[in-house]
């Protein structure tokens, strides 16, 4: 082989070795961990998180007790966190293997149920991540309200909460990931608002294995409704799966995120 051929081979090998490797898929997971779960069930929920090892995790009904157990067991696996625990159902948190560039704990409009937002850098993409909890169907606002009245009022509230989130991200031109307990199925008005705004449901993506998420694995009753969701805009969600394990009355949902067309 002549010298010029050797030089060409050497240059080509350098170019191949310097070529950027394709970005690794990013796994995301949403999990309502049940504020009243006993310690045994908290550990079962941590088992699920540890086994799935998501890159980005949205937690709801996050209590101080769950946070203590989470930090003790999984703190090293999730070095980047914003955890805002509360007694009761309003605790929320985002845990990530990727650095959180900015976080904001915000009241959802029109009801002040808290949500958590983070900016996450994934390769060349800056992704807005929202961890949300929409109004529960049976929450009573006035003592005189019966169950049917409460459900009707809360359906309207969820729709308005979803519309407020849609408006919040309407001017953001990058990818958006919305994870949460929406407290309604895909036929609900809140979920329709997300769909109309261009949010894709992970369970409509390739290789999905989805279904009802409530009541979850901690319940003796079978799951009957799909109320926990992973939604994305300007990104691709694949391999969505309902994880039928853990110690909550909700099953977690996991999906893979990438930016291929």
Automatic annotation (TrEMBL):
Molecular function GO labels: endonuclease activity
SUPFAM superfamilies in the cross-refs: DNase I-like
Pfam families: Exo_endo_phos (PF03372)
Species annotation: Myxococcus virescens
High-level lineage: Bacteria, Pseudomonadati, Myxococcota, Myxococcia, Myxococcales
InterPro entries attached to this UniProt entry: Endo/exonu/phosph_ase_sf, Endo/exonuclease/phosphatase, TDP2-like
Signal sequence, renumbered to the chain: 1-18
Cofactor list: Mg(2+); Mn(2+)
Name of the protein in question: Uncharacterized conserved protein YafD, endonuclease/exonuclease/phosphatase (EEP) superfamily
Swiss-Prot/TrEMBL keywords: DNA damage, DNA repair, Endonuclease, Hydrolase, Magnesium, Metal-binding, Nuclease, Signal
